[in-house]
Amino acid sequence: MTAVHKLLPRRVRFDLTHSPLHWIPHDPEASYIINTIHLLLPEGELWFCRVYNKVLPQLPAGKLRDDVQGFIRQEAIHARAHENAMETYLRRHGVEFDSYLKKVDFIFNTLLGDHPTGLPDNFITRRLAKNLEPWWLRQRVGAIAAIEHFTCVFGKWVLEAEALDAPNVDPVLLDLFRWHGAEEVEHRHVAHDLHVAMGGSARERQLWGAVLFPGLMTVLGIGSSHMMNQDAGIARETFVRRWLRCDKNGTLPSIKSMFDASRRYLRNDYHPEAEATLALSLEYFAKSPAVQAALREQLLKNPVAA
Ligand SMILES: [Fe+2]
Ligand SMILES: [Fe+2]
């Protein structure tokens, strides 16, 4: 099905003016942890776009190039939607997160920036970076492929999580997370296929997975704890204990499912196609209030193209 499916940008908008901080009212901890994922993502997604834009001129016309362009457009909209909506929403609720974003910025823009592992900029490192450029670009696409496995697994979970269908869950935030999750499932194969086309090996992707999965969970734990520690109504607790409680409530993916997903990624026959179906995304787009509003707007602006 993905052989003919075109990745389209959906110009969605979300108004979080009336969304409460504890948007899953019966599980504030899950509210914070899911918010943290979506605070962390824009920095990563803008970095994905910068890396992909460096690869794009090397790609011949065809399906992969179209997919990469579709991926860039979707991720740029994700990053903007989360920055505009999520950051305004958290500031309105008095949550401090700038110090956390500085750490995230260091990971994506320095450690994983154009100079491998953030080497200082001087004559020697510039020469080194030039010589290593094709290799480092491929490594970074390998890193994106590993992160995209995580976003696909989480995206599939958020689309299917029955606990989030509870009537008191904020519908606008839920739509924001489910629209994003659906597009993550929709474009799950692009980074993997690009890395393969660049000559990347399964071993490279597995190494990135082995580094990034625990790394992402650590960064997520630091960010969510930073925000929860500002909330007098939430007891101090370790990230793992919090996740285990959410696991029981069904408000986060189970720890076991996260381990299983990591193990699947380390298999030599892994391919993201097997992780989910495109139909799952398309079903959600057909009922997402934000996606449907964006399509109506597009139809009014350009009835012929739509
Ligand atoms: Fe995304
Ligand atoms: Fe993605």
**Helix/sheet category:** mainly alpha
Strands, count: 0
Poorly predicted regions are none
Total count of helical runs of at least 4 residues: 11
Average pLDDT across residues? 93
Bound molecules: fe (ii) ion
How much β-strand is present in the residues? under 5%
Total separate domains: 1
The radius of gyration is: 19 Å
**What is the N-to-C succession of helices and strands?**
HHHHHHHHHHH
Give the CA-CA distance, first to last residue: 21 Å
Helix percent band: 55-70%
Biggest sheet, open or closed, and with what strands and sense?
A: none
| Outline type | globular
What would the keywords be for this entry?
single chain, 306 residues, mainly alpha, 0% strand, globular, binds fe (ii) ion
Describe the structure concisely for a colleague.
With 306 residues, the protein is an all-alpha fold. The chain is 67% helix and 0% strand. Bound molecules: fe (ii) ion (2 copies).
